[in-house]
User: Fold Sugar phosphate isomerase/epimerase from Chitinophaga skermanii.
Amino acid sequence: MKKLAQYLFLAGVMSLSVAVSAQDKVEKMGWKLGAQSYTFNRFTLAEALDKLDSCGLHYVECYNGQNIGGGIEGKMDFKMDAAKQAQVLDLLKQKKKTLVAFGVVVPRSEEDWKQVFEFAKNMGVQVINCEPKNEHLDAVSKLCDEYKIRVAFHDHPKPSHYWHPDSVLVALKGRSKYMGACADIGHWVRSGLDPVECLQKLKGHIFSMHFKDLNEKSPKAHDVVWGTGISNIPGVLAELKAQKFKGIISAEYEYHWDNSVPEVKESVANFLKMVEKL
Assistant:
């Protein structure tokens, strides 16, 4: 019995050592592994931040419309006033979480776009994940240069405007260096695309990721624990390393909404194991 206890203890120490080593490797590669709070959209932002913590994640991408909670009235909204912004920043500090991205937003006017950038500046947002309308692209490009904040075009599944990397590349041509792509690899799979090939097409333009593994290649596919599905997660990670990608990787787990923490936690553990092998 004593030997078994010693074995289990040593196994636990070794497992922790591997995880720490992989986390160090992730940071050195410039990857910010966190979660899109939409993963926990059945809960308040305050509750979502606690769930991130239980998954070992400290970077968060917030979305517009989530109830804030934690004693703060209202919803996350890029139009919230300065006092509300300060309350949310204080909440993030209390929860020891860093807000790195915001989205996916589709502002309706140039005035709204200006508000998004002001909000991002005030909140320390590094990347605005979005799906701009064609008529706003030039205005967004100017705002990117003015604020020096990155904008990343997100790919909802076919037939959304940016479902294919080619449409993203067309929108980026001749515009601000602060404009790039938010690569949602799960949505590419839903659209029948190969995520590694899509990443290769967008080489040099990828600012952020919505990370998913799916059970099948179809519009009806659902999320599964990373590394157990058909999204070729090892290949995706190898491609990101080859491209020397530096940016935000947000877990966005859209399944088992009421209790996804165990699967997100297992996904993170699998991610770190795969990173260790890169």
The two ends are 37 Å apart (CA to CA). Residues 2-28 form the longest helix (27 residues). The chain is about 45% helix and 20% strand.
